[in-house]
């Protein structure tokens, strides 16, 4: 007997395909299934901009220059975190119409003055959490930047770290 019949697969997983098919059928003819007088919102006008490398967390919605985080998330549902994928170069980000140019200016300003890389050599007793905290980073961001599948480190391992303009000698100012 397979996993489907032994009850090892969760109910939600078993019902995924039937629910997907049902949603597709309803979307193709809503009136047939009792959805009457639907009011559709017009699609949001947007423009795209290609960004190089992985943007740091939160960079896409700098509050003083860009649209709200909710708007960016709605236009870019493929971004599961608040950053572009680290392994993709030339990722296309969607912005509400009129905001791509503003973002491009901010992006260029930040790129030229902010991000700098350094290499950290892991010492005995250091953890990824401690290293991340020392440089004002998130553990997940360090793992992604260095292609780590696990937070386990070894002595002598070299880690790439992004430091920002406000970082000075182990502290953010």
Listing every helix as H and every strand as E from the N terminus to the C terminus, the arrangement reads HHHEHEHEHHEEE
Mean pLDDT: 77
Number of domains: 2
Strand order of the largest sheet: 1-2
Envelope shape: flat
Question: Taking Cα atoms only, what radius of gyration do you get, to the nearest Å?
Answer: 22 Å
Major beta-sheet overview: 2 strands, antiparallel
Would you kindly provide a written description of the structure presented here, covering whatever features stand out?
- With 173 residues, the chain is α+β, with helices and mostly antiparallel strands.
- It has 7 helices and 6 strands, in the order H-H-H-E-H-E-H-E-H-H-E-E-E.
- It has helices at residues 3-6, 11-14, 16-28, 69-75, 100-113, 128-134, 139-145; strands at 46-51, 91-96, 116-121, 158-163, 167-168, 171-172.
- Residues 168-173 have low confidence and may be disordered.
Question: Secondary-structure map with pairings?
Answer:
Blueprint: H1 3-6, H2 11-14, H3 16-28, E1 46-51, H4 69-75, E2 91-96, H5 100-113, E3 116-121, H6 128-134, H7 139-145, E4 158-163, E5 167-168, E6 171-172
Antiparallel strand pairs: 1-2, 3-4, 5-6
Keyword list:
16% strand; two-stranded antiparallel ribbon; two-stranded antiparallel sheet; alpha+beta; Membrane-bound Lytic Murein Transglycosylase D, Chain A; single chain; 7 helices; 2 domains; 173 residues
